[in-house]
Structures are given as C-alpha cells and as structure tokens.
Amino acid sequence: xxxxxxxxxxxxxxxxxxxxxxxxxxxxxxxxxxxxxxxxxxxxxxxxxxxxxxxxxxxxxxxxxxxxxxxxxxxxxxxxxxxxxxxxxxxxxxxxxxxxxxxxxxxxxxxxxxxxxxxxxxxxxxxxxxxxxxxxxxxxxxxxxxxxxxxxxxxxxxxxxxxxxxxxxxxxxxxxxxxxxx
Length: 182
What we know:
This protein has one domain (2-177): P-loop containing nucleotide triphosphate hydrolases (Rossmann fold, 3-Layer(aba) Sandwich), CATH 3.40.50. The strands form 2 sheets. It has a 5-stranded parallel beta sheet, with helices on both faces. The protein is of the alpha/beta class. It is built from 7 helices and 9 strands.
C-alpha cells in the first residue's frame, strides 16, 4: 500500500488531480476534515464538513494525524480516514499542505506503507483566475496568494518525489500516475 500526497497552493489543481487519479487509476481518496462550508458541488465524499466544536473534539481525542488553520478554517487528516482509504486499494491519494507532509510521511511509513509526494506549482495568474471563479473575497484572496509564494519556496525546501508545473491535466495525471506502484 502506498499513500500519494499532493501539495500545492490554493487553487493549484490538487483536488482536480486527486479526482482524476481516483478515476483513472482506481486509487482511494483520503477524505480530510474541515470546518469551512462546502463549495457548490462538494459533498461528504470531498471533505468531512464539521463545526468548529466538532473539530476541536476530534483534536482533543487525538483523532488527527495533522491539522492546521488556514484563512479562518481548520483542516485536518484523521488516522481513521487514512486507514479506511489504505484498506480499500493498493494506493491512496491525499490532498494536504506542506506542513502536513512530514507528519503524514512519518506515520504512513511507521505503519509499513509506502509514501510518495507531489508538489503542484501554478503561475500566479492561473491561481488568481481560479480564486476569482471560486468567488473568494479580496482579503482572503490576497492571503491565499501570499501563501502561494510561501508554498513555492517550500517546494524547493522539502524533498518531494515530484515537483511539477502542470501544462495540461492529462500530462500531469500521467506524470503522477508513474509514481503509483504496479
């Protein structure tokens, strides 16, 4: 079993890539937890949407392998969600922050699983366009773009298995698909 972690800035295409890996390669998706409201079209297959209090309860119980706050919302990955995904296929994919990468890698390997990591780079114009399409407010938009600059520097500092600037979705899916064990 291998866990593939996809990192990148907000609106870099992480979730879209994960969905295509699930569809084309039969990977399981680790469903992470968040306190943010669902975007149009999102469901419990995309995230476990919980209240601030519910998230805090899970954190107090030690359910999370990692969690972080971003733009006023909490995001985290539970041990249970990783175990569910890893039991249902030979490989699973998780969308996470660079902050989460080390903790997920360490825990996954301690369980005897393989771990691969991908960082998606996207140019600022693409990110701005996608954030506008999401109807993100200007204050949050700027915080996300500042985060983008920080995450780009993280892509150089962390040992990702693949750092890619997507030119097309098909090419990106193919490149990341090469990391999936046969």
